[in-house]
Amino acid sequence: MDDSDLMDRVTPSGSSLGDAASAAGQSAYGEDEEDDGLYYIPERRPSLDLGTSPMDTSQWHYVDQANSPVLSYSSMSSEKSEKMEKLDESLTRGVKHTACGPEQVRERVQSSPLDNFENIQLVRADSYSSCYTLDSDDCENRIPKVRNKEDTVPESPDALVLLHDPNEIRHPSLTVDFTFKAISKTLGKLSEGEMHYFKRILWKRFPQSFNTPPQGMDLVDLVDRLLECYNLEVSLKLTKHVLEEIGKKKMVDYLQALRIRNEVRYDLRQSLKRIYGEMGDDSSKQGEMRSIDDVFTNLNIKSTSDNGPILEHEVLKIDKLDSNRKEGKQLSVQDLMSKEWLDKTNLRFLLITGGAGSGKSMAIKKLILDWVEEKSHQHVSFLVPLPFRELKKFEDKKISLLDIVNELYPETKQLRDEDYRSDECLILFVFDGLDEFCEKLDFQNTELLGDHAEPTSLNIIMVNLLRGRLLFRDIFMLTSRPLVRRCIPWDTHYDELDLRGFLESDKDEYFKKRFKNQDHADQVIAYTKSLKTLRIMCYLPLFCSLVADECENIFRAKGLQAELPKSLTYMYTKLLLALTRQYRVDGAPPLSPEEERDCLMKLGKTALTMLEKGQFKLTRCEWKEVGVSDDEAVVNSGLCTQYVTKPFILFQERVISFIHPTMQEYLAALYVFLSFRNHGKNIFEQQLKDRFSRMFKGHKAMEMYKSAVDKSLTYDDGKLDMFLRFLFGMVLHVNVDLLKPFCTNSSKWPNMVDDAATLIKKRIKENQYPGRNENLRRCLEELGVST
């Protein structure tokens, strides 16, 4: 076969291979002159002679071996998510490689030892060799012309040099995952025509990125190719440059906004992790801080509200107090303000109510940390906690909501005004402790406020937030003790959930997490189960922490074999002090010792009156006769709770109860004890007017206890059983010492344990009330006397 025959087979219609290549280039690339004369058909070489004559190597060209190809984002798509960070490191590590394309541009990559990411500079290199060659003497492939340095023609001005500052520090939030999503999301907003134009300019300006024109690539392949060729920083800059060239300035701003939000989100998460990442136990006496995951226990969150107090009781059977009859769905912290909840309800406000010590703040901390660690609520762009304890310092200032956020979290200063109003930038504001905001909220006469950047008072900001006038595209979560639900106006659409402490199984889980030594945890769990009332009250996380603190102190002082206290009165007194002092609402009007004592006496008198009647709730009208404001009883001290009952189908009323029936019984006993201790008065003396009143004045303490025992034995239903146990528990000196702040009589309290035990044993022996003997034995246990 001669040369002409070969040419006929290779080039149809008499066209040269170079012409064919040129024509193909016109149709594929849309550029007429770019490839003219680039390719030619070399002269046929003689057959390869492997004789003994020396080989001519004068025309050899040496090319360095190429390094391994740069990793591709898409090539890792099937890998597990935990390898993503390793991929990020590999993409941002210095890599040097050679890329050959139609323009013969060499990409030089240098690595900086300071910042561990690529620094890319694209320069035009002189070509001395070809990317293509003849495979054999039997077939001739097209070969780009080999140019010498002397006859190199000027390069096209369309290809750009991409420079990167080697000293620029990459923000740690810039990851492969974010970069891919950000570029994809931005380019996804382009129309089909705009996307075609983008690809054409990309091919024209940066041909070294592609072996073939990118017009046939879909969005995923295109972005993947960019990340394959360039590092993350350069990929973003390249995208913005091309968008600017095609006149899409808004898309450039949008991509930049995505990046700024990502940086702010990262910095905010780091800040929140420092603030909320660790927590002490509720009492935090030892000052030991532990990870919240090591401490947090699931909470009993009900999808309904107005469920009333927990009514489980060791002695009495108490019917439900006409509260919400719906059982309610069990929720987790992850369900609060979840994407599914938002889509289903279309509400912007969520109010979580719960009694003092029920775990509201613990739930909020868990929610924050789950967002920080990307375990939940990833539909939320920013989570901004604004606890009212922190907001108090702004009460006397003229300030805007934006200034408050920026002062508490300085990293948010980078956010633009549009970010607070964007549908794509959802912000969750969490207001913990609405009950601690003591200013009156006037929803009728307060001025309107629609600009979150306008300075005003904190009161006006809160009123307009709760009316839904501020940041109407964002969502809000509030926690509070029950009473202050009235602080949300009636015409604001919101959902209300009830946080009710621990379920039965969660009580054991709490102690297992609280004690690192499992032997200690097992012993405490067995201890709580041995005392039924103690076990019931462990539904309160606060009460659990008090029990754990007490047991921990005993273990530390006496070892694992130490005997744990059997006195219920001791733990209830600890709870009383925690609620009225340590957990008293910040900002509540301070009470003098006399006012505090008077408040407890009024609550105790009411508790005893209700107890004798078998009553466990009062309407708000009846409560007015108590002489203690519902704010003080429910919000400030946390000894009571308020909820709505539905005694009839179309009738509702607000009622007030003590947080648990045993707290009502304890306060009744405290009232009887302090009446005698401070005033020498036996409230069980027979009310026979003046004729007999003098006979009972100056009674000794044992006369008061004798009257209480006889009174309780007359009730067959045992309504005073727990009351009597608490009253005898107050005989112990350890409890008398705890109650000293409420005592006005400084005289020494006599040791009455033996006399009290003798009285109880006498009543058991008399056996006039056989059904009540078991409770009398429990009274002996409360005294620490063997039965």
From TrEMBL:
Keyword Cytoplasm among UniProt keywords: yes
UniProt xrefs under Gene3D superfamilies: Death Domain, Fas (1.10.533.10), P-loop containing nucleotide triphosphate hydrolases (3.40.50.300)
Extent of Low complexity compositional bias: 13-29
Main location: cytoplasm
Keywords annotated in UniProt: Cytoplasm, Leucine-rich repeat, Repeat
UniProt subcellular location: Cytoplasm
Protein name: Protein NLRC3
Species for this entry: Scomber scombrus
